[in-house]
Amino acid sequence: MVSILVGLAAGVGLPVQTSVNARLRKQAGSPFRASFISFTVSLLFLLILLFITEGGLSLPWDRMFQEPFWIWGGGVCGVIFLTGNIMIFPKLGSVQTVVLPVMGQVLMGLVIDHFGWFCSDQTSLTALRAAGAVLVVTGVFIVSAAKSGGEASPSKQEAKTPGRFVWQALGVLIGMMISVQTAINGHVGQVMESPVRASVISFLVGVGLLFTACMIQLATQKGIEHRMVLKGPWWMWTGGVLGALYNLANVFLSHRIGTGMCVIILLVGSTTGGLLIDQAGLFEVRQQSITLRKAAGVAVMILGAVLIRLL
User: Which residues contact 240 (CB under 8 A, 6 or more apart)?
Assistant: First the structure.
């Protein structure tokens, strides 16, 4: 029960992070630059937390180098998810940008559990667990369509996107990366004997990749505005802290409740948190009331989570 509450709380923080980082992007002038700033704040927060909890900043690198090569992939998966979302949103629209990655997350989470990939605990895929996964995706679709005014179908411009199927497949793929990241970071947490150490490793890789991406972007795209973040509300800097806490929850939960269940509990929390932000109009987000349809979508997600967890 404690694990589920931790997952729900971390999930609620995810849409807060998204809203905060959206404000940061306005000041940074580039999505990659904003993401680099957010990841750097996450890393600094985790290093402070590591110093407080461990009494130093040393990491057992010798253990990491004895593990399979994929143990370094957590940060890579996070950057792929971030970059992929930036790419598919203008191609597919808001609803599919939410629903397709969720499909990938849920599907890959159950597959990882079924086969025990990335040193995860093995949990067989049953018909009821599959039905629960379908309910979770259906609930996300209901909420996303309701938030976009019921326009579940793509716009005419989006429908004419060349290679639309490829973009849809990419949407599912980047969602799968989140489940892979959850499983990998969970194993790193066991190797490091600390969720904080595991999260530091993940964000070190992510910061390195995003720094490289920013340098390439600056060198190759002359039209990019090179302004620095100087002004803005204080809370726009907190997205990195929330991202670090979300990653810590992933590491903490994945080996306690399984990758698939971890992903789904975080999804339920993030969807609920997003609705609460819309209802209150927080962080400069356009205010939208929680409707019966949105509440029904969350209820369907919870029912799916119950099927997966209890049956």
Answer: 37, 38, 39, 40, 41, 42, 43, 44, 45
Beta-carbon contacts of 169 under 8 Å, excluding residues fewer than 6 positions away, are none
The Cα–Cα gap between 30 and 22 comes to 11
SS3 36: helix
Specify whether the CB–CB gap between 24 and 239 falls below 8 A. Answer: yes
- Residue 128 Cα to chain centre, angstroms: 25
pTM for the structure as a whole: 0.80
Task: State residue 224's pLDDT score.
Answer: 55
DSSP string covering 190-219, please?
Answer: HHHT-HHHHHHHHHHHHHHHHHHHHHHHHH
Handedness of CA 264, 270, 274, 276 (dihedral sign): positive
Pair of tokens at residue 259: 């990758």
Q: How far apart are CA 287 and CA 251, in angstroms?
A: 33
Residue 82: CA count within 13 A, CB half-sphere: 25
Give the SS3 label for residue 9: helix
Q: How far is CA 34 from the centre of its chain?
A: 16
State pLDDT tens for residues 92-134: 776 677 788 888 888 898 899 999 999 888 888 888 889 998 9
Contacts of 178 (CB under 8 A, 6+ apart): 77, 78, 81, 101, 104, 105, 263
Question: What is the DSSP secondary-structure string of 255-311?
Answer: HHH-HHHHHHHHHHHHHHHHHHHHHHTGGGPPP----HHHHHHHHHHHHHHHHHHH-
Buried b (16+ CB within 10 A) or exposed e, 264-281: bbbbbbbbbbbbebbeee
